[in-house]
Sequence to fold (529 residues):
Amino acid sequence: MAKTRTKYVCSECGAESAQFFGKCPACKSWGTLIEELVAPAATDGTRMVATAARRKGAQPQPQSALTLAQITDTHLQRFSSGYAELDRVLGSGIVPGSLVLVGGDPGIGKSTLLLQMMNNLAQRYRVLYVCAEESGHQVKLRAQRLSVASGASMNGTSIKGTSMKGTSMKGTSINDASGNDASRESEASPKPSPRSSQLDAGIEKADLYLLPETDLDLIVQELDTLQPQVAVIDSIQAIYLPTLTSAPGSVAQVRECTAALMRMAKRDHITLFIVGHVTKEGAIAGPKVLEHLVDTVLYFEGDRFASHRLLRSVKNRFGATHEVGVFEMSDRGLEEVLNPSALFLGDREDAAPGTATIVACEGTRPIVVELQALASPTSYASPRRSTTGVEYNRFLQILAVLEKRLGIPLSKLDAYVSSTGGLNVGEPAADLGVAIAVAASFRDRQVDPFTVIIGEVGLGGQVRSVSQLELRLKEAAKLGFKRAIIPKGQVLPDLGLELIPVGRVADAIVAALPTHSRTAEPESPHKAP
Ligand code: TYD
Ligand code: MG
Fold:
């Protein structure tokens, strides 16, 4: 019987079809179908995703249904990654047996983050780091540099400590990366004690096991032997299933590998972190094609020129999404930023004219951010507008409101706005801060550095209410701000801040730039300074 030898996979959505189409039948994108070879079916008719269990001849056991009460909760206790910021994004800790995808641009710090996390975890659990992109020596070098840095949480025990049991296994402990090749030939040592008892015991001085391997069958075999509580696969684009003929990193490989790892994670209760590079669309498949497969999707993002990194949760079966964790990349690895507002707050004392402070919300987390605006006479026929961290079209809209409702002649001025550190403050609650920063720059006046400004600006020049106002105000109060300009009509408890409710942008400007009282009335054009 002639079997289909090739199939076509959409690089956008991963849909498969037996014949070629110019337009993907599933997601309607053009020119995205890529030919891939289909692996021949196994002789026994099963799918050729080999697991170690199957190779050993063990038949998969049928599961019988259980009631909720029958399911014991020994495996349900979350445990800490050693980083409060990472725990927050995961939904207060790591869920045992979950599969977490960590996506991000190449070079953003995914490997660094996970290596640091594994180094923390290695002090309590048996953990395996599959470094498909680097050799064991390179990872050790990296880990040593990181371990010097972070003091208590990253003390060197797992690197300099005594050699652990299990160095004869294929997964080499970090103390013994050089023994890898020799050990590959040797017999695997007996299975270590069951993980559950270690979980209960809490502390087991273990070491970080490294496995420089790209063949998924061998990785699965090693997971099976070592039975770690936590494993990292760095990265999914570098590993491959030999039974599939397409190249590592192709949609088919990335999906099949993830699915095989998912089965492994659920069956053996191993927590897996999978690294996926965000890539340009094309032959190489990025984390997007995996999002539906995994439990949790985290994206690690940041500006190439800024040191801060945001870890964002975009899917989480075990917690809230849109949480962020903030890290800072130093020359000794990633450090968590427990008080991100301090990072995005400029120098309070010598704030230049055109500076306004807002409280942005990342998920449920308020972050105080400084905005700077500059309005200066243009030398072009049409004035320039540019934004960093603020949405461009919203900025244009706010400029139009300032011009039309407050008579600020901005059509003859170039206007720029940026947030400190380039933090993305795309939300409407930043509008009023942007408006006041522009007005302050135009009038060359300083906003009181201890005032925060929160509100959405409507096209009619009104100030609209915002979500999570109380949370934002609490954060400002905590950081020592004295006053807050807020939308009118929201009932709030006493937060230790002087509240200035405003109904219109014009009132907000009067309140923020008090020495300039009367000229800020609506429809009363004033002179440039
Ligand atoms: P890496 O974790 O390798 O990125 P990814 O795995 O996401 O591709 O991080 C590499 C970048 O991080 C590299 O460009 C340099 C920077 N970096 C530091 O600034 N300090 C450090 O201590 C480390 C380890 C990396
Ligand atoms: Mg990496």
Q: What stands out?
A: Confidence is low (pLDDT under 50) at residues 42-57, 149-171, 175-205, 516-529. Residues 6-37 form one domain. Residues 104, 106-112, 142, 329, 331-333 surround thymidine-5'-diphosphate (ligand 1) (CB under 6 Å). The longest helix spans residues 251-268.
